[in-house]
Amino acid sequence: MKSLQEFLQHFFRNKGQHVFLSLLVAKICAFLGSLFIIRILPESEFGIVSIVASVFAIFAPFSGFGSQQSLLRFGSLTDENDKKRSLSRYLFIKGFGFQVLLTAVFFLVSLFYVNRYEDILYVFIFFAIRLIGFYFFTHIQSELRIFGKNSEFAKLNNIVNTTGLFLLLSFSYFWGLYGYLIALAATPFLALFWFKKNDLKNITETFSLNKKKLWNYGLHASGTALLSDTLFSADILLLSAFMNASAVADYKVAILIPANITFLALTFMQSDFPILAKNYQDKIFLKNYIFNYYKIFLPVTLIIFGIGFIFRSDIIHLFFSLKYKDVTLPFSILLAAFCGNMLLRNLYGNLLSAVGKMKANTLISIITLILLLLFALLFVGKYGVTGMAISLSLSMLMNGFMLMISFYIYLKNLK
Predict the structure, then answer these.
(1) What span, in angstroms and rounded, lies between the C-alpha atoms of 147 and 272?
(2) Tens digit of each residue's pLDDT (9 = 90 or more) over 365-411
(3) Which of 22, 264, 314, 360 could form a disulfide with 154 if both were Cys (CB 3.0 to 4.6 A apart)?
(4) What is the DSSP code string of 121-144?
(5) How far is it, in rounded angstroms, from Cα 76 to Cα 337?
(6) Minimal CA–CA distance to 342: which of 256, 264, 234, 282?
(7) Which one, of 258, 289, 256, lies nearest residue 271 by Cα?
(8) What is the pLDDT of residues 315-325, one digit of tens each?
C-alpha cells in the first residue's frame, strides 16, 4: 500500500465502508441515547448511572478473560475455516465460564457504593445482566471478523444498535430510569440471533495453537484493553471521589462529543486488523500503512478541532441544556486531546496489538493510569472539572508518545 489511492482501494475491497458505517451508526445511537438520558433524567440520577457505567467500562474489556481478542488475532492468522470454527468454539466455552466469574466480581463492587448512593445497587444489577450479554455480542463480532464477513459484522452492529436505541428511547420515556436500565440490559442479547446461525456443535478441536500462548495473549490483550478503558472510567471515578454527582454530570457532558470522534480512526484499524496481523513482520507494509494513515487523519483532526473550537459554545447549547453552558473550556481541552489521540494512541496502540506486542501495551497502560492519578491530585482540587480534563489530556498525550516509541523500536528490529 504505497499510495493513498491503493490504501483506500484496499479499505473498500476489505468492505471497510460497511464497518465504517456500522460504527458510525453505533456512535450516533450511543450519542443520541446519552443525549436523551441527559435531558430526561435528573442530574443526580444521571450522575449515578455515569458512575456505574464507568465501573462497567472497566470490566467490559476483560470480557471472557480475553477470549474474543485471542479469537480475532489467532483466527486471522489461520487460513482454514475448520480450524477457525474449532478455535471459536473452544474460546467461546472457556470464555463464558470466565465471564460468569467476572460478572460476579462486578456485582460485588457495588458494595463499595451502596452506602453513599441511594438505589445504586439496582443499577448495578441491570449492568451485570448487560455484561453477560456483552460477552455474546463481542464473541460473535470477532467470529464474523475472522471469516472476513465485514458486511455481516456491520449488519449485526446496525440491528443491535438501532433496535437498542429504539428500546432505550421508548422504555425511558414511559418508565424513566428503570426503563432505561431494562433496555440497556436487554440490547446485547439481540446478537444471539446470529449465534443460532452458527453451527458450533460437534466440532472437534482441530487447531494446533499452543493454548498457553493463546490465553497469554488474550489475558494481556484484555488487560491492556481493561487498563486502556479504565483511563476513561478512572476520570469519572476520581471526580466522583474528589467532588460530587453534579460535577460528574458536567464532565460527562464535556467529554461526550470529543470521546466519540475517535470512531473515525478506530474504523480503519478495526477493518484492517486481520490484514495487519497477517503482515506483522512486513516492515515495508507497516511503514506504508502509517504514512497513508497520516495522509488521511492529519487533515481530518485539524478540521474537527477547528470547527469544534470555533463553535464550542453553539455545540454545547445545541446538544445540551443551558445548565451545562459552563463546560466549554473542558470541552475544548478534551476535543484537542482526542484529536491527538487519533494520531498517536489509536494508531500505535492498535498496531502493537496487531503485531502481538501486548506486554508493551499493558505496561504503558499501567504507567498512564498512574500519571492520570498524579495529574488528578495536582489539578482537580484547584480547577475542578477543567482540572480533570487537563489531567486526562496530559495522560493520553504521554500514552500516545510511549506507544509510538515502542512500535518504532519493534519496527527497527524487523529485518
Answers:
(1) 13
(2) 899 999 999 999 999 888 888 999 999 999 999 999 999 999 999 99
(3) 22
(4) HHHHHHHHHHHHHHHHHHHHHHHH
(5) 32
(6) 264
(7) 289
(8) 888 887 667 77
